[in-house]
Write a structure and sequence with these properties.
Order of helices and strands of chain A: EEEEEEEEE
Radius of gyration of chain B: 27 Å
Number of domains of chain B: 4
Oligomer: heterodimer
Helix content of chain B: 25-40%
Number of helices of chain B: 14
Largest interface: A-B, 35 and 33 residues
Largest sheet of chain A: 7 strands, antiparallel
CATH architecture of the largest domain in chain B: 2-Layer Sandwich
Strand content of chain B: 15-25%
Mean pLDDT of chain B: 84
Structural class of chain B: alpha+beta
Distance between the termini of chain A: 17 Å
Distance between the termini of chain B: 50 Å
CATH class of the largest domain in chain B: Alpha Beta
Mean pLDDT of chain A: 82
Structural class of chain A: mainly beta
Strand order of the largest sheet of chain B: 4-5-1-6-7
Low-confidence stretches of chain A: none
């Protein structure tokens, strides 16, 4: 099953409801001019541990272009967010 | 209602606690040693003499030759702020500190406790104490509460009702908005000097001219969003400090002292096997000032070496010889901060697990228990790697 950020997270396959594991969830992210997150869901970012870009399925009509950031929030919580190039939105995601 | 408590010039007030007589004379917080020569907050007497916060040092001394410069005491200010937040928490307010001297809290939980909104806000002012000249603003939204606090006099409470909000915000200056200095100048050049003028512009035009920051400022000028206040988890009070017999600037000695402090703090019984998430390293300087740096660890840890390695580079940032070094464990996890294996893979445990899952299915219905099935583990798109499939047997 091919996933796109922002789509519903469940689908029906062979008569059974299945859901995508680690599906992205919309997040409220404040970023600086360079696109680096400053706040995630109103919680300040303490450290950007890593950042990387995923470009995939560029040969299809639904290419995936995402800028991922692995963050440590001021509260100490670790989280991964990405900026979706197609929709322009921000999402959190586990297992990235 | 959301309330905003501000203490203007907290850094100066904290530094003046060592020399209270200067509070009545023209005095200002001295510039940071390695920063631009710009003044910090100033006393009322200095303001009367024409000195303004943010003024260049040379200009300020030319304007008021008797101006006294007060050495910044960053660690003292942090400690004072922490005591103020503790006092508010002791009075029942769940506070969210935004920056040094600015904190938000929700009032609905305490209004019944103190007999209404205004008595609750007055209780908050009383909890802080008169020496800090706290101002409180309350409104339905965070930015409006901050704006209300900015116009309140010391010790005063200003409440803005939702229907009065546009008229209240309209005459206030743009400097309340979190914008870069260049942006204010750009807006002033366009003839926009008040929040009301900015709020009256079309949002699309503001975004096109000033970008996302401008769009956000425009939203705030119209009252901002009704974001919730998230009360903080009160910090842990585990610390260790070391006083040197004489001032020390040698990094090797400081590193050794830091290693001892990490071991001492981790061995404190109050830590109770919890892992450390956030630490602060503070120092009292020979010159009388202080220095403080906080650090959030990448992963919570109880390992002394790891904490020491993370903190050691901060010692190079010390501006001068120190007479006291202090380590604070600011945030700790729960004792079970590291998640280990949920169930051991023994046959007995598997039988227990199956039995438990059967009970969950029976109580919540079919489809409530799922299993993870890998479908494309090689995929670079995380949600394409596996599916959650209902496990009905």
């Amino acid at each position: 099953m091919v996933a796109r950020a922002g789509e519903p997270r469940t689908a029906r396959a062979e008569g059974r409801v299945v859901a995508r594991f680690n599906a992205p969830r919309a997040a409220r992210v404040e970023a600086n001019a360079n696109g680096r997150p400053l706040e995630v869901n109103h919680r300040a970012v303490a450290i950007v541990r890593e950042e990387w870009r995923v470009v995939d399925r560029w040969w299809t009509e639904e290419p995936v272009v995402r800028d991922y950031f692995e963050l440590v929030l001021e509260s100490g919580e670790n989280t991964v967010v990405f900026h979706d190039g197609a929709s322009g939105g921000w999402y959190t995601q586990r297992g990235a | 209602m959301i309330a905003c408590l501000t203490i203007p010039g907290l850094e100066l007030k904290a530094a003046l606690q060592r020399t209270p007589t200067l509070a009545l004379r023209p005095a200002a917080l001295a510039p940071e040693p390695q920063g631009e020569p710009l003044l910090g907050p100033v006393t009322a007497a200095a303001e009367e003499a024409g000195v303004r916060p943010g003024m260049r040092l040379g200009e300020a001394l030319a304007t008021c030759p008797s101006l006294a410069l007060v050495e910044p005491d960053a660690a003292g200010a942090e400690r004072a702020w922490e005591e103020i937040l503790h006092a508010l928490e002791d009075a029942g307010f769940s506070v969210e500190p935004a920056s040094l001297g600015v904190a938000y809290f929700e009032t609905h939980g305490v209004e019944r406790l103190y007999g209404g909104l205004e008595p609750a806000l007055r209780r908050a002012v009383a909890a802080v104490g008169t020496e800090w000249d706290a101002c409180i603003g309350a409104a339905g939204r965070r930015f409006a509460a901050l704006a209300a606090a900015s116009v309140a006099r010391p010790g005063q409470v200003v409440v803005v009702a939702d229907e009065e909000l546009p008229q209240f915000l309209a005459p206030l200056p743009l400097t309340l908005l979190p914008l870069e200095r260049g942006r204010y100048e750009e807006l002033e050049a366009l003839g926009v000097r008040k929040l009301g003028q900015l709020a009256g512009l079309p949002g699309g035009a503001v975004a096109e001219r000033l970008g996302p920051d401008g769009r956000r400022a425009w939203g705030l000028a119209r009252g901002g969003t009704a974001a919730r206040v998230r009360g903080r988890r009160p910090p842990a009070l585990v610390f260790a400090c070391f006083e040197f017999p004489e001032a020390v600037g040698n990094e090797l000695t400081l590193r050794r002292a830091l290693a001892g402090l990490v071991d001492t703090a981790l061995a404190r019984p109050e830590r109770r096997d919890r892992f450390v998430r956030k630490v602060a390293l503070a120092a009292r300087l020979e010159t009388g000032g202080s220095w403080r740096r906080t650090l959030t660890l990448r992963e919570p840890s109880g390992d002394a070496d790891r904490i020491r390695v993370a903190l050691s580079p901060r010692l190079a940032e010390l501006p001068g010889p120190v007479v006291e070094l202090r380590l604070e464990l600011v945030e700790l996890t729960e004792p079970t901060g590291h998640q280990l294996e949920l169930l051991a893979a023994g046959a007995e445990d598997r039988a227990k697990l199956r039995n438990g899952l059967r009970q969950v299915r029976a109580s919540t219905g079919s489809g409530s228990v799922c299993t993870v099935v890998e479908v494309a583990p090689w995929s670079r798109v995380p949600e394409s790697r596996a599916l959650l499939v209902p496990k009905d047997e």
